[in-house]
Structure to design on (272 residues):
């Protein structure tokens, strides 16, 4: 009886060991492809981040070169070449005017490679720059009226503001498919991944050389009727002083824009 029990116990342990091995192999079939795809997904995320940064660069460049500043717009081709070299090339690429990315490893981001060693970004021409929600090819297509554009246009003339609207820059990149023939790479071997990121802003600033110029722009009948208010200031001040005589309050500074000027105390000024 003891011999039979021992044989039965050994047989059960053997069956349990085979079951554990089978379960491990089944789980491995599902997890190993995921582990192999983690580096690929990390590369896609890195490209997506570079695309977003490139779109922001293109949009903010319009705050300096926007047709109203000295030098006018930066040409579309020059902007695209800068983006390809500085955001989709080697991470240590120098910032040089007129630099163009070349189709060789020294100019490529060597992290962005497929499992077979070939570049995910096959050609720098696969990085394109477009403008506006419709993806136009010129800066003029980048402007889109804001939702409150009607109100803005009413105020723009008196304040000396430009009224072109919101500027949108788009950057797109098309990546190569992963090598075919390996089941765990599907569908990345035929998906044709293309990423597009956009950035929008108002590039037209309103600057005035001093406080007096600010007051002159604001002090217009269509914007702020300070002239009419100033004529009534004396009468209102007398009325306030009578009503609030116990508190010794003075009347409001109606129409006196110069009262609100930012001033630096004299003891904070230093002669050159």
């Amino acid at each position: 009886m003891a011999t039979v029990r021992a044989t039965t116990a050994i047989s059960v342990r053997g069956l349990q060991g085979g079951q554990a091995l089978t379960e491990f192999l089944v789980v491995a079939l599902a997890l190993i492809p995921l582990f192999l795809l983690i580096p690929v997904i990390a590369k896609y995320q890195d490209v997506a981040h570079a695309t977003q940064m490139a779109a922001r660069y293109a949009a903010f460049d319009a705050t300096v070169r926007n047709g109203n500043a000295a030098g006018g717009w930066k040409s579309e081709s020059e902007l695209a070449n800068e983006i390809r070299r500085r955001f989709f090339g080697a991470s240590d690429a120098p910032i040089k005017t007129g630099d163009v990315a070349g189709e060789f490893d020294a100019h490529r981001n060597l992290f962005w490679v497929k499992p077979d060693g070939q570049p995910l970004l096959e050609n720098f021409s696969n990085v394109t720059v477009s403008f506006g929600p419709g993806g136009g090819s010129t800066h003029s297509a980048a402007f889109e009226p804001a939702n409150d554009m009607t109100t803005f246009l009413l105020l723009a003339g008196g304040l000396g503001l430009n009224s072109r609207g919101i500027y949108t820059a788009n950057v797109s990149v098309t990546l190569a498919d992963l090598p075919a023939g390996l089941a765990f790479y599907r569908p990345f071997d035929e998906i044709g991944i293309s990423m597009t990121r956009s950035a929008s802003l108002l590039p037209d600033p309103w600057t005035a050389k001093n406080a007096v110029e600010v007051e002159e722009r604001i002090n217009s009948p269509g914007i702020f009727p300070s002239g009419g208010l100033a004529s009534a200031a004396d009468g209102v001040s007398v009325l306030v002083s009578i009503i609030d005589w116990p508190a010794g309050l003075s009347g409001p500074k109606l129409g006196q824009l110069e009262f609100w000027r930012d001033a630096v105390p004299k003891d904070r000024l230093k002669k050159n």
The CA atoms of residues 175 and 193 lie 6 Å apart.
